[in-house]
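Saturday, quiet lab. Running sequence design on the structure tokens for the scaffold JK sent over.
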């Protein structure tokens, strides 16, 4: 596998173009008093777009991303971009960390340091002068069609194909045994890696939340036979709310992503609104605004990655590929599984793991759909705990 060093360097002309487009945005009207009920409020988005134009410093966060070693390679005819951060600990466990939608590798900037170098970030150690038992060599790829894994060269890049490509990535990097972690799309990829390479994947750890549960439950029949009538009604209320209020983006992206592509590619405010709504809907509901759940600049870094790489369209196209994939739902493998549930609802385990067969199950009141951004300390701690006893013996 040929690997090339990569450095993010967005041309200044692209930054100037972004500012010019933001300045001349043609804003819609808005009915009084509707708040967030019909989408992102006008006043809120105007203020956020103006901050993106005049207050946010892309070069600062570009430099921060470039602190992590980055590379590109070609697998199955597709450019794959990835961060590869090796731990100073010689016995560190290789770990592939996969993002979801609408996210990017920018989601992981606050967890890579603690994962790769726990000594420097307050992590446990086996003692002075000894290697930490909780360190990882982190590989964080951009999904094909997301971020710098572009352009997508052909149709068919669904989750099984992506997972197969990532097994080739880990093999090409020389990792014979490794762990897998992800959320959203990344959770599916992590589970599929465990199915494809059960002899290589020592454990699959995922983060989830009630939003993910509702979405999965709307697409895949859930077994509610063991639930009480009260619990069944609770599940139905959650799913009905999603079907009525939260499924619009998915219906459009799984059926007509090319129609949406023009708005996401031509209008930075359109791309901003499309992503920020999900950060409002999917982060912990205790936060009234997205930036109360995640750092505003980190959120805008994520949006900027989509904008500068023109990947709003191809990322939307992934959901189309998944919806039209010939592959069915993949059952769990025998590889140890870990679930970290944020903004927890007790009904999740009653539905997904009624017999408590998942080896590691953690629930947290804090955080939501993007815990690497919302509650990185909790996520890192849970990952360390899950993988602690799964490391290959030397």
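Result came back. Writing it out in full:
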């Amino acid at each position: 596998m040929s690997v090339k060093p990569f450095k993010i360097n967005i041309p200044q002309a692209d930054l100037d173009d972004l500012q010019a487009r933001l300045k001349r945005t043609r804003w819609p009207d808005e009915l009084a008093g509707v708040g967030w009920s019909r989408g992102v409020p006008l006043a809120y988005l105007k203020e956020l777009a103006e901050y993106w134009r005049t207050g946010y410093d892309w070069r600062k966060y570009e430099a921060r991303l470039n602190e992590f070693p980055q590379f590109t390679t070609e697998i199955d005819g597709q450019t794959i971009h990835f961060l590869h951060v090796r731990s100073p600990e010689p016995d560190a466990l290789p770990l592939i960390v996969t993002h979801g939608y609408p996210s990017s590798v920018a989601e992981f900037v606050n967890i890579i340091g603690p994962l790769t170098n726990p000594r420097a970030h307050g992590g446990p150690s086996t003692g002075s002068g000894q290697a930490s038992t909780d360190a990882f060599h982190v590989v964080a790829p951009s999904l094909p069609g997301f971020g710098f894994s572009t352009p997508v060269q052909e149709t068919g890049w669904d989750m099984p194909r992506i997972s197969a490509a990532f097994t080739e990535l880990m093999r090409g990097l020389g990792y014979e045994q490794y762990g897998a972690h992800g959320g959203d799309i990344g959770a599916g990829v992590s589970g599929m890696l465990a199915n494809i390479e059960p002899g290589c994947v020592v454990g699959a750890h995922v983060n989830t939340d009630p939003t993910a549960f509702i979405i999965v439950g709307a697409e895949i029949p859930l077994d509610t036979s063991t639930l009480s009538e009260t619990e069944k009604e609770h599940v139905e209320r959650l799913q009905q709310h999603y079907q009525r209020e939260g499924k619009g983006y998915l219906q459009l992206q799984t059926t007509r992503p090319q129609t949406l592509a023009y708005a996401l590619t031509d209008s930075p405010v359109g791309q901003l609104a499309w992503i920020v709504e999900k950060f409002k809907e999917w982060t912990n509901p205790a936060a009234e605004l997205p930036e109360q759940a995640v750092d505003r600049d980190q959120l805008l870094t994520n949006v900027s990655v989509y904008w500068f790489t023109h990947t709003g369209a191809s990322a939307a196209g992934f959901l189309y590929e998944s919806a039209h994939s010939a592959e069915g739902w993949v059952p769990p493998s025998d590889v140890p599984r870990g679930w970290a549930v944020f903004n927890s609802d007790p009904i999740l385990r009653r539905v997904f793991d009624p017999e408590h067969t998942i080896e590691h199950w953690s629930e947290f009141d804090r955080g939501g759909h993007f815990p690497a951004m919302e509650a990185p300390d909790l996520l890192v701690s849970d990952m360390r705990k899950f993988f602690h006893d799964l490391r290959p013996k030397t």
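Notes for JK: The CA atoms of residues 367 and 374 lie 5 Å apart. Strands lie at 3-6, 70-75, 78-85, 93-98, 136-141, 178-183, 201-208, 337-342, 360-364. Ask whether to fix the surface positions before the next round.
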